[in-house]
Amino acid sequence: MNSWHTVKVKYTKQLTDGTLKRVTEPYLVNAISFTEAEARIHQEVGEFVRGEFMVTSIVKTDFADIFQYDDAEDWYKCKVAYITEDLDSGKEKKVNNNFLVSAHTVKEAYERIEESLKGLMVTYEISVIQKTPFIEIYPYAPIEGEEVVTDDVYDSEEETGSSINVAYVAPEEE
Q1: Residues 6+ apart with CB under 8 A from 107
Q2: pLDDT score of 140
Q3: Is residue 5 a contact partner of residue 60, using CB atoms and an 8 Å limit?
Q4: I need a labelling partner for 53 at 20 to 30 A (CA). Which of 46, 76, 113, 123 fits?
């Protein structure tokens, strides 16, 4: 599941000098739907915002993958292009993917995206790296009361016996 949503939240923030200022800040939420993204942001932001806040917009955002490093809080959007061949027509096609990486500087973001993509079997080009305004990123988490269950699934076609872990959310029992 890779459904990322940019959610903008408007609230009154206390600055370091003690003054209050009305701000609108973007957050990135992994959720199945717009409704779930709004519910998750209310849960997450409600924990640290005093007073009222309002969700001003929710936009679906396309990221192929996110690479988080614990030592950095700034997020950089990296546009990566690679060439693929169309199987039907045989023509080459340029494909662009957006990745998100945490880093301190643009140079470090470039090095980290290079490191993360080094196993890619195609030639690629990092065409754009830009700092994002995201305050926080919230990966997918099951809604309270739901339990995430993993099962082993076996490849019956080849009967190799190798297992693949599959996660799903178990429905609540009444």
Answers
A1: none
A2: 81
A3: yes
A4: 76
